[in-house]
Amino acid sequence: MNVKTMILLLCVCASAFAQPAEWLARGRGGGGGQFNPAISPHDPNEFYIACDMSEWFHTTDGGQNFSIVDFRQLTSNHYTVLRFTNDPQILYALDAEYGARPAKSTDGGVTWTPTTDPTGEEAYNLFVDYNQPDRVLVSSYGELYFSNNGGATFAQKYSNASGLHVAGAFFYADTIYVGTSAGLLQSTNAGSTFSLIATPGINAGESMISFAGGVTGNTARLICSTAASIDVYPGITGGDFEVTMGVYTYTIGGNLWLNRITSFPIGSIPFFVGMSQNEIDTMWAAGGKIPYYHPDVMRSTNGGATWQSMMQTVDNVNVQTGWCGQNGDEGWGWAGQALGFAVAPTNPWQCLVTDYGFAHQTTDGGQTFRAVYVDQSELNSAGASTPQHLFYHSNGLEPTSVWHIHWSSPEKMFASWTDITAGYSEDGGETWSRPSLDDNNSYHVNTTYQVVQHENGLLYGAASSIHDLYQSTYLTDARIDGGDGQIFVSSDSGATWTMMHDFNHPVIWLALDPTNTNRMYASVVHSTQGGIFRTENLSAGSGATWARVGIPPRTEGHPYTIEVLIDGTVVCTYSGRRTTQFTYSSGTFVSTNHGDTWSDRSDSAMVYWTKDVVIDPHDATQNTWYVAVHRGWGGAPNDRGGVFRTTNRGLSWTRVCDELYSESIAIHPANPDIAYVTTETAGLFYTENLTDANLPWTQLAEYPFMHPQRVFFNPYNSNEVWVASFGNGMRKGTLGSLDAPQQLRVAVIGDSLSFRWMAVSGAVTYSLWSANSADEPFENYTLEATTGATSAQLSLPANLMKQYVVTAQ
After folding, report:
1. Burial class (CB in 10 A: 0-12, 13-18, 19+), 508
2. What is the pLDDT of residues 685-712, one digit of tens each?
3. What are the structural domain ranges in the chain?
4. Which of 287, 327, 557, 598 is the most buried (most CB within 10 A)?
């Protein structure tokens, strides 16, 4: 008898969790800086908005709903741009993934591919000939490059060693005008050569900061804004609007540029200028209005001779607002001046203005404006005060950071936000409102970082005037030590808050002690006065006394997360601190005497930039911890990142995820094998095999943002997963169990085993697992193959005895 016919093959099927097909944006919209909008010439309802938090927002329904471009395709910052052409399939942009580099889409923006990059990932601006999309201009810090073949190759056309700000470009048949800080460049031969031409009328010592042009019939007209040359630099933004000295117009073929600055309304300071390419009399400008420092949009209908302020922010005269407006949750002064501005390429009556938190659009030449950062059915009436503390649905335009999410009940939630302080919900996160917390800005609260709930129902919140703590730009004493911070308390699930204790330094984390209801710990951040503070009389409220506990070895005042175990043991992380380089002051520390003394339990990878510590909820002994570590730079901190696991309270560690820019890990409360890892640059990762020795991690293609920060499971529905991010608010996903693959069959073919099974609706991939015995727990199974097909082939097992399982994902 052939021995192969005696193999015992036990083949079974198992169900698996299905990842969310979509991660839905949640929040109240807006609240973060938005830049460089671009309106489609093919559909007035389609436009893009850039953000300094890395995402491109995109709408195709006039702002009713926004999605973001997947970060694996295209990213943004405060000076990236996107350009449409006369071919709706061809778009260009600057991609900020690596500094900034030119990119191109040939399928209407669905996918993006880098072009040749003459700047070495140091591009500052990009312009395209609308009518001849193969003509592309790209600038670096000091050079201007031109391509006549759609970005396949570029040639340098101009250089200025002291820097070259490119203010705009106007393509007029084979003549190209480029407004720059060095003057007006002109090409009369379709880009073969460029040279500076005279601009009589523009004052000496002024340089262009914004530039545009348009043509009607045989008449072409240009417009530019200027500032003192010493104030103009590559990368200048609308944040510098007060430097503006002039606004000039010029009809091509005329004698002089005419300075129109005295024609602007008193208090209006333009920075951006704009025109539709097919109309020369309607001109636009955007900037700020003093003394209020509101966003201001100005229009001329006679070629720049006279100007009118169109966006009437005082009393919201012609603006349908979201939650920012006169007397709103935030006033117009919070929005500040324009940071981005666009006029529709072929419609002079449509423009879009963005600022430090919001976006507003007009489609009727400035007679009315409406906010496009909230659900359009929830806009507040023009001509009336903006109500406070209303609830808003998200429309997807979420450019803020969220640090922590808390549930007080199935319906009541609290989100710790950056810049817009916080949010709370009374309907399970579908709508959000601003809580009453430091409404008068008495404590300068910018960010709430985290909240904890006492068994008596009170919420305690960690607050700070400093945002972005322990991100790469907030690690130095100069950025942190001047900050304020407090603990706030709420007795109504986060709707209203009162200040409980003022530490005069940022507070980033709180932890209650399960062994003593009167004890709480706080992470207070300051290079010399920071550390972990403790109170033993929490119930005294504002009368509670606080004292700094012992200082863990090596640390330098940058405590981060704290966990108190069921036996009272305190586990904490200290995060990074930089002087001229990272200091040897970060790590994981343990105290068994309420913080009086500490033991250093850090792996060698943790000593420069440690992030979260997470206690495994499935280990009843609480001996299993996970710590996320972020890669540093500048020598020793390089390549030390990842997620590390200990099963003996930090005596030894194993790296279980090698994503170097790890932020945190979250473990499913009902399944010990399911976990998510968040990263700064690579998005969201997932595993269903956390307890494996060599566990696989999968980057989730459905999650579109590059920098998720933490993952939270709804404690009242563990299949509801929320992701808090650094710059894209919150997203909610719902897990579902896929059906198990059916009819797993195996055949022996030569020296191989051939497996087949039935397809599962909703499955993307299938995994084939093996074990030596049917008695093995599934976490001990070995992954043999992953495939998108419904079949697989393996070699015969050496011992001719195997248990096989197929799962669907």
Report:
1. buried
2. 999 999 987 789 999 999 999 999 999 9
3. 3-18+738-808, 211-384
4. 287
Q: How far apart are CA 756 and CA 739, in angstroms?
A: 16
Tokens 């106007």 — which residue? 170
Around Cβ 513, how many Cβ atoms within 10 Å?
18
Task: Specify whether the CB–CB gap between 400 and 31 falls below 8 A.
Answer: yes
In terms of residues, how long is the chain? 809
What is the C-alpha to C-alpha distance for residues 29 and 537, in angstroms, rounded to an integer? Answer: 39
pLDDT range class, residue 738, cuts 50, 70, 90: low
Which residue's structure tokens are 């945190």?
A: 664
Run of H or E residues at 392: strand 392-393
Task: Enumerate helices (H) and strands (E) in the chain, giving the number of each.
Answer: 2, 67
Q: What is the DSSP letter of 492?
A: S
What pLDDT sits at residue 746?
84
Q: How many CB atoms lie within 10 A of CB 199?
A: 19
Q: Which of 506-510, 663-667, 744-748 has the lowest mean pLDDT?
A: 744-748
Spatial separation of the C-alpha atoms in residues 766 and 795, rounded to whole Å: 18
Longest dimension (CA), the chain: 103
Coil vs helix vs strand at 478: helix
Contact 237, 227 (CB under 8 A): no
Instruction: Specify the long-range contacts of residues 197-202, CB closer than 8 Å, at least 24 apart.
Output: 199/248, 199/250, 199/257, 200/255, 200/256, 200/257, 201/248, 201/250, 201/256, 201/257, 201/258, 201/259, 202/226, 202/246, 202/248, 202/257, 202/259
3-state SS string over 586-604?
Answer: CEEEEECCCCCCCEECCCH
The predicted pLDDT at position 748 comes to 85
Q: Check residue 315 and give its pLDDT.
A: 97
284 residue type, one letter: W
CATH class of segment(s) 3-18+738-808: mainly beta
Burial of 200 (0-12, 13-18, 19+ CB in 10 A): exposed
Place of tokens 């005419």: 258
Q: DSSP states of 507-520 as a string?
A: EEEEEEETTEEEEE
683 φ/ψ sector (left φ>0, alpha ψ -120 to 50, else beta): left
For the domain spanning 211-384, the CATH number is: 2.130.10.10
Residues 6+ apart with CB under 8 A from 432: 26, 27, 28, 391, 392, 394, 415, 423, 424, 425
From residue 807, alpha-carbon distances to 92, 504, 543, 768 in Å are 42, 54, 57, 7
